[in-house]
Design brief:
This protein is mostly helical. The chain has 2 helices and no strands.
């Protein structure tokens, strides 16, 4: 049981997903962009 294996992997995966999402959203104008820009309402 390695703490780095669980917490580290989770943190890295979350960061990678976030980075990829931001990169994709910035490069290609996805339908999610307007939602993030305007927010709820």
């Amino acid at each position: 049981m390695h703490a780095i294996g669980t917490e580290g992997a989770l943190a890295v995966s979350l960061v990678e997903m976030l980075m990829r999402f931001i990169m994709m959203a910035s490069t290609t104008r996805t339908p999610v962009d307007p939602i993030l820009d305007t927010g709820p309402g």
